[in-house]
Amino acid sequence: MLRKPDPSSLLRVWDLPTRLAHGALMLMVAGALVTASVGADWMDWHMRCGHGVAVWLLFRWVWGFVGGHWSRFTTFVVGPVQWMRYLREGLPPTVGHNPLGALSVWGLWGLLTLMVLTGWVADDGVAYAGPWVSGVTASFSESATHWHGHWGQGLLWGGSGCIWAQ
Description:
- By secondary structure, the chain is mainly alpha-helical.
- Helices cover 61% and strands 0% of the residues.
- It is built from 6 helices and no strands.
- The protein has helices spanning 16-38, 43-66, 80-89, 99-120, 138-156, 161-164.
- The protein is elongated.
């Protein structure tokens, strides 16, 4: 028979702001993916979701320096030496992110940052022009638009979209 753990022995790893931000990020990314898929009538909502992702990224950067202990970058910033050692030897379970979990966090943040920045310079020529499109060349905007709508979106869908982006 399974016993419920004693609440006094539980360790809350992520604080409330981090938990709320993670939930909001999930909803914003899902909203951005869905609104991008349903078409031009939803581009205003797509843009709002993208701006929400940008706000989340900014919050997370700040919270990574001033937030609770487990939300700080110092608890999960590791480099290639730790990643390789973890792959080679394995490590006992840890509280928070293991080295590969930390790598996946940085990968997701990088992808989301690229999606926000390419969205801000994207111009589909029909329904949407990003707020920074006037500051870049048409060629750059075209490349950013293609990457944002095909490769970046495919990576957010889990890579499957990269196949039909061709």
